[in-house]
Specification:
Distance between the termini: 51 Å
Strand content: 15-25%
Helix content: 10-25%
Signal peptide: 1-18
Number of helices: 11
Oligomer: single chain
Largest sheet: 6 strands, antiparallel
Shape: globular
Keywords: Signal
């Protein structure tokens, strides 16, 4: 980035103004909201603060566009809500996403932040001291004065020093080398419900400096049920949430359950069948290279296709047959153009199959998403721990397409 562009980026600081409060929100809940941070308020020198301000402004832009998209009803048939796919079986099932109370609270929390930015900012920091989140490096960092200023361990260093499996390390190095091309370019484009672009094309500092976590790359017992290419080809960043840049415990005395960020998954990978006791959603930000490139399988825990095989006070073990006749109909295609929003209720079993055969340079491409969880404050219900499913025939090994799949679902507490 040349000096003039860097200066222009710096001058954007403090340019964000309060968002208009939609009429479906009570202004009394929004105006003069009171914030309790999770942990101490970060303190910065004047030199550091300049870069924190840039990161803060891009964070507000990201959050505002996300809240606007979720409540955009122009083409959804809903009221003050976008429509989301929630189950891919039986032809696909959809709902008005803002019918969910957790989603209403998350959107309200975002507007409370936007309209009380100075108070909310006391809970915001660059989190450069956190040892387990990383800088992707490469062109993404070169285009970001913020990522250059706040030093983190890079993906290259992470995969070289902290990953022991040679094949995972190899996939990780390719992921690192091509990360910039994966998250930028004409193929990355927002769904139509977004008021403006919040991809790395427009918010280079946020995408470079948010702090990324390749959550499956290091050795763990959980990864016995995983695939090496996804272990080395997946990462997420959290902007707003308990592990992110903006860490708010309570607003107006109510616990905040929002976790908002972004994910990147390489093509030619199957994100394994998994579940968690926290609701989750994705907005797809990729134009597909071919029809049916991005396929999702989502099956609710109360689906007639799911059979209970074991149960105790904490876990319900279930199975479903992904190898049954016409099992391909359990998967639905999605992209920024078709079913871009997916919402997974608590304990929904889901997986993502991303085809790379139609890409000219598959090593340079990924599915890129705006990601969020909405009720992560409820620590009784698993606090978002992702549970990977397994082969029912060979427990402890990855669940592959075309076989009976076994999953442990968390017993939810009301």
């Amino acid at each position: 980035m040349n000096s003039k562009v860097m200066l222009a980026t710096l001058l954007l600081s403090n340019s964000v103004v309060a968002a208009d409060i939609p009429d479906f929100l009570d202004k009394n809940d929004i105006n003069n909201a009171q914030f309790q941070c999770l942990g101490d308020s970060p303190q910065y020198s004047d030199k550091d603060q300049k870069y924190v301000d840039i990161l803060w402004d891009e964070t507000l832009n990201y959050l505002e566009a996300y809240a606007a998209a979720l409540t955009n009803d122009q083409a959804s048939g809903c009221l003050n809500s976008d429509s989301a796919m929630v189950d891919s079986t039986e032809g696909g099932q959809h709902m008005c996403v803002m019918d969910r109370r957790d989603m209403k609270l998350m959107v309200k929390n975002i507007y409370q932040v936007l309209n009380n930015a100075d108070e909310a900012k006391k809970c915001f920091g660059a989190r450069e001291d956190v040892s387990w989140i990383y800088n992707p490096g490469g062109e993404l960092t070169k285009n970001s004065p913020v990522a250059q200023h706040f030093k983190r361990t890079t993906f290259e260093e992470f995969f070289d020093q902290k990953v022991s499996d040679k094949q995972v390390k190899q996939y990780g190095k390719s992921f690192t080398k091509n990360f910039y091309k994966m998250v930028t370019g004409d193929e990355v484009k927002m769904p139509a419900v977004f008021p403006y672009d919040i991809s790395a094309n427009s918010l280079p500092n946020l995408w470079a400096a948010a702090g990324w976590f390749p959550m499956y790359a290091e050795e763990s017992k959980r990864n016995d049920k995983n695939f090496n290419n996804i272990r080395g080809g997946y990462a997420y960043a959290e902007i707003f949430g308990h592990w992110g840049l903006l860490r708010i415990d309570e607003i107006n005395g109510d616990k905040v359950g929002a976790e908002v960020g972004m994910t990147v998954q390489s093509v030619d990978t199957l994100y394994p069948f998994h579940n968690h006791a926290i609701s989750e959603m994705y907005y797809n930000m990729r134009i597909p290279a071919c029809t049916n490139q991005f396929k999702t399988m989502a099956i609710r825990e109360d689906s007639p296709l799911v059979k209970t095989v074991k149960e105790d006070d904490k876990i319900r073990r279930v199975q479903f047959d992904e190898g049954q006749h016409n099992s391909q109909t359990m998967w639905l295609s999605g992209s920024r153009e078709q079913d871009p929003l997916i919402y997974f209720h608590q304990n929904t079993i889901h997986a993502f199959d991303v085809d790379g055969s139609c890409e000219a340079n598959p090593e340079e491409r990924a599915i890129v998403s705006v990601w969020a969880r909405s009720n992560a404050h409820d620590k009784r219900n698993d606090y978002g721990t992702t549970l990977l499913c397994e082969s029912a025939k060979n427990p402890g090994t990855p669940a592959k397409r075309g076989e009976v799949i076994q999953c442990d679902l968390t017993k939810l507490k009301w």
